[in-house]
Amino acid sequence: MAVSWNEIVRLGLGLLCLLAAHSGQAQTRNTGSAESGPPGTSPSSVTNTAAAIAVRAEAIRTSCIAGRRLICGRVLQVLSDGVVVESGYTSLLREPVQRSWLVPGTVTASRDPTLVEAKEPGAVCAGLVFLTDLPKRKRSPAKVKPFDYVILQAYPAGEYTYHSVGNIQRTVRRFSAGLETAVKLTLESSAVETAPKRYGMDARPKTKAYLEMPEAAGGAVPRLLSQTGAFTDTQNLVPSPSLVPYDLNVHFWSDGAAKGRWMALPNDEHHPDTKIAFHPAGEWAFPKGTVFVKHFELATNELRAELRRRLETRLLVCDSAGGIYGVTYKWRPDNTDAELLNSNLTEKILVQTAAGLRTQAWYYPSREDCRVCHTANAGLVLGVKTRQMNRDVAFAEGGADNQLRTWNHLGFFEPRLDESSIPSFTRLAPSDDLSRSLEDRARSYLDANCAHCHRPNGTVADFDTRYDIPLPEQKLIEGQVLLDQGIDGARAIVPHDIWRSIVYMRANTVDSFKMPPLAHSVVDQAGMALLRQWIESLPGPPVLAPPTLSPAGGDYTQAVSVTLNESEPGAAIHYTLDGTKPTTSDPLYDKPIQLSSPTTVRAKAFKPGFTRSITVQETYIIGN
Fold first, then answer.
1. Contact by Cβ (8 Å): 515, 506
2. CA distance 322 to 405
């Protein structure tokens, strides 16, 4: 009798480890069906004759050829540059994959399949895997381990070659193998080691200055995205050959949206071989007529991240006067085109979650909004600089290559770079790059999300979040703030104290004092966890979290009984009812506070050996 799927899940990884001990016959015994769960966990009702094995293998191969599938592979060995996956243990899994012991190992590209694949009958097959997304175990901080199953995006050998293309937000790596072969996923391409490393692109594309956009903001801006010259097939989001894809080491938080990025650098009869003024640490300067394209999509189902809705595509144009202007195109519901917005707009979007539906506000910026962040002091163009661009990306022609290396080869930079110097350039640290220090990752996050405003001659704040400025000179740690939000002892960053760290507190809210103040309606939970971990790693005494008041303040028609709860056992809570900040001389909370008239309750926690909490307050309006 076949074991049921639920029973298999309960058996868990222990059974997988036992099965992993089986030797050479394992591959012939474990060619299970797509519907009964991963092979090697459920006995097959088909006899393991050579003919039966061949029939099952061919059925799997045919299904793969008919359409891209997720292949379940068992990890045999973890190496410093990748993992060895036994692809002989395969199962075609349909989305959504909800197996508690399966760890997704790829990112699904939101592109038409024909843009991801080039078919050449008779060629060796190449699958795709995203090494930057190698999974972590759910119950351990360690990465994927032997006997885990991972999901790879793969194809059978001997039928087609599938080439990765640009515009995918993760670096794509290749592997080649049949369904019966163990494959090594390395950090190098599948090219012969002795062959010269290819560039991502071989030739600079011909590019009309400004594309089809006006030279100045006052000109006639196209009403439709399809009229801008950015895409040859707007509905299928096929970029113009003039557009060069790029990606950043650390992304600016955009309320969870996925983004695609391209640049069009002028290269026509009137503007031949224009150059980017390169700087190894500071901002780059771009020639007039350069156009940047940024496309936004939002996952509308948290259980299936590949289900995305197109929201907007923005164009940033380096104008004829040496400045910039930006425009926003909002996508039609049918995705046939996107229409120019003349003013900002907020739209409520429904998102499916495990608990039901939630509503997310999405802010479409106006032209004036673009200038709030894209200032001359910040270099006009944000993000496109050495420390962000110093990374590998997938190009359509040459596979993965360092962006600086390929752009230098194309003649984009003035002065031209010595290619051997590229590895020495600064590189921001992604939050999940555990090879970099916690401080590096936190400061990289602040650089990407805050440094366009928080720098000398920027906003009213006195601190500087640029990564290339040494930490002691940034005025972040114990740095003075002009707006303390009523928090006693507030500083930009207070070691070991998130409650008085204004940088953290303002980024961790969507209230009126949120940061950034524009187009920000969802807190970046992963980013805040990173900042909190860094702040709490800085040396300092333990800090009391503030007490909580229940019920919350508001309008009440009758008397209210207010309860104060401490966050730390043994902490003493002192409170006031006259609007002053509590001290240890004020009343000690020992029972609910009875209110019968309008009152502001303020409370603070104290405990020996701890830094006192910040003051919290609620205002109760009682009566008519």
1. yes
2. 27
Classify burial at 506, counting beta carbons within 10 Å of its beta carbon; exposed 0-12, middle 13-18, buried 19 or more: middle
Name the helix (H) or strand (E) containing 59: helix 50-66
Residue with tokens 């144009």: 317
Digit-coded pLDDT (tens) for 485-529: 888 899 999 999 999 999 999 999 988 888 888 888 999 999 999
Q: For residue 226, which phi and psi values (nearest 5 degrees)? A: -65, -15
Q: What is the pTM of this model?
A: 0.69
| Domain ranges across the chain | 5-184, 225-424, 438-537, 548-622
Per-residue confidence band for 399, with pLDDT thresholds at 50, 70 and 90: confident
Q: Determine the straight-line distance between the first and last CA of the chain, rounded to whole angstroms.
A: 72
For 231-285, the DSSP string reads: EEETTTTEE-TT-EE---SSPPP-TT-EEEEEEE--BSSSSTT--EE--SSSB-B
What's the rounded Cα separation, in Å, for the pair 603 and 14? Answer: 51
Q: Which residues contact 592 (CB under 8 A, 6 or more apart)?
A: 561, 562, 563
Q: What is the total residue count of the chain?
A: 624
Report which of 277, 297, 463 is spatially closest to residue 380, judged by C-alpha positions.
Answer: 277
Q: Give the residue among 537, 530, 620, 511 at the shortest CA–CA distance from 575.
A: 620
Chain mean position to CA 529: 14
- The Cα 405–Cα 417 span in angstroms is 8
Q: Predicted confidence band at 46 (pLDDT cuts at 50, 70, 90)?
A: very low
DSSP state of 404: H
Q: Which residues pair with 548 in a beta bridge?
A: 565
Helix-strand-coil split of the chain, %, nearest 5: 15, 25, 55
Residue 548 exposed, middle or buried by CB count within 10 Å (0-12, 13-18, 19+)? middle
Would you tell me the crossing angle of helices 438-450 and 525-537 to the nearest 10 degrees? 130
Average pLDDT over residues 130-142: 38
CA–CA gap between residue 247 and residue 130 (Å, rounded): 15
* Predicted confidence (pLDDT) per residue in 424-441, tens digit: 999 999 999 999 999 999
Q: Which residue has 């070659």 as its token pair?
A: 161
Phi then psi for residue 597, to 5 deg, are: -140, 165
Answer whether residue 11 shows pLDDT above 80: no
Query: What digits encode the pLDDT tens for the residues 354-376?
Result: 999 999 999 999 999 999 999 99
Tens-place pLDDT, residues 245-284: 999 999 999 999 999 999 999 998 888 889 999 999 999 9
Closest CA to 123 of 153, 95, 146, 155: 155
- What are residue 624's DSSP bridge partners? none
Report the alpha-carbon distance of residue 622 to residue 624 in Å, rounded.
7
Q: What token pair was written down for 302?
A: 């948290």
Phi, psi of 19 (to 5 degrees): -65, -30
Among 610, 601, 505, which Cα is nearest to 561's? 601
CATH classification of 548-622, choosing from 2.60.40, 3.40.50, 2.60.120, 1.10.730? 2.60.40
Helix (H) or strand (E) holding 309: strand 308-318
